[in-house]
Every structure is written in C-alpha cells, then in structure tokens.
C-alpha cells in the first residue's frame, strides 16, 4: 500500500531526509537511492508517495519513492530551457578560446581556464560520488580554491551536471565571490603591462 507524505529535514549534501505521512504517524527515513533514476532531487516540503518499509534494524523507511505527479517507471524529462550554469561556464570557456585565436587574449588565459576547469569538475564529481558513502569528502575549501584559481567555469558546469552544491546558499555565495575575484584578477593582469610581462615570461620558460 502506497502512502503520501511530505519531505522534511532533507540533507542534500548527504542525500537523505525524512517523510512525514499526511495521515499522521511516525516519520520515515528516506534516502536519495529510493527515488527513480534521473528524478529531480527533493527539497523540504515536496509531496511524495512511497511504500512503507523497514531496514535491518527495524526502523521505518520509505521505499519506491516518487515525487507527486511522477508516473511509475517513467523517468522525468530534463528541462527544455537552456541550463544557465552550463551555458555560463561553457560560454566563458568558449569566449576565452576564441579570444586567444583572435589574438585578443594570451594563450595562458585560455589554457589555464580549460585545465583548471577540468580539475575543478573532477573534484566536484568525486565529492558527489562519495557523498553519503562514509568516504572522505573533498573539503569545500578545496573546491573554492580550485574555482578561485580559474576552475570556476568547470565547477559551474559540474554543479549542474552532478546536481551538487546548487542548493547550499552559503556555498553559492562563496562560489560566486571566488568567480568574481578570479575574473577581476585576470582582467587586471591583462591590462597591467608589468603583470602581463611577468606571466608571459613564466609561460615562456
């Protein structure tokens, strides 16, 4: 018998939370793995339907979870509109590459952004993969450092691709600050002859 309930106490970083039955009763533990593959990640207040179950220790859990309005056995379609995060990150990398080809931007800028974006994307991907597994996570400070150094376009794409860190407001504030600082620093380096000459000499060695 399926039961309807509301998501409460959802921890998106760890991928679990609880569901409070609409008809009353004890709340049940719900894990992200109980949702269909490809389903949107839940947030507090989401209405779901589920099959009551129990784990090995006899605790109440939710199995075969579906978001309200989601048909059984049908994976939800992705959004039809462009993905802002992917678009912003991709367009920035494209602009850096085209700027280099046109001679407006030094090669170290495009190469640096591309390489660091790969590193940042891998860090986000690994952190997402181990989330909730008990394995050591990538510290947020490390993710921010990679973004600050120039990996933020890749980090932005990875956030959307892996559905990771997108709903944590404190992380997003710091992320956009690191992106702004990085762009400002690179822009300053490009207009300051002394800094530009020093970077060019380092790349040429």
Summarize the SSE layout with pairings:
Elements: E1 3-11, E2 16-21, E3 28-31, E4 47-54, E5 60-67, H1 84-101, H2 107-130, H3 140-161, H4 169-191, H5 193-204
Antiparallel strand pairs: 1-2, 1-4, 2-3, 4-5
Helix pairs in contact: 1-2, 1-3, 2-3, 3-4, 4-5
Protein name: Cold shock protein CspA
GO molecular function, one term: mRNA 3'-UTR binding
Keywords: Membrane, Phosphoprotein, Transmembrane, Transmembrane helix
Model description:
The protein has 205 residues and is α+β, with helices and mostly antiparallel strands. The chain contains five helices and five strands. It has a five-stranded antiparallel sheet, with no helix packed on it. Helix 1 packs antiparallel against helix 2 and helix 4 packs across helix 5. About 4% of the residues have low confidence.
The proportion of strand residues reads 15-25%
Enumerate how many helices there are, as a single number: 5
Would you list the SSEs in sequence order as H and E? EEEEEHHHHH
Number of domains: 2
Helix content: 40-55%
Which geometry do the CA atoms define? Answer: elongated
Please summarize the sheet with the most strands. Answer: 5 strands, antiparallel
How many E strands?
5
Structural class, judged by helices and strands?
alpha+beta
Gyration radius, rounded: 22 Å
Distance separating the two termini: 70 Å
Given as residue ranges, the uncertain stretches (5+ residues, pLDDT < 50) are 74-82
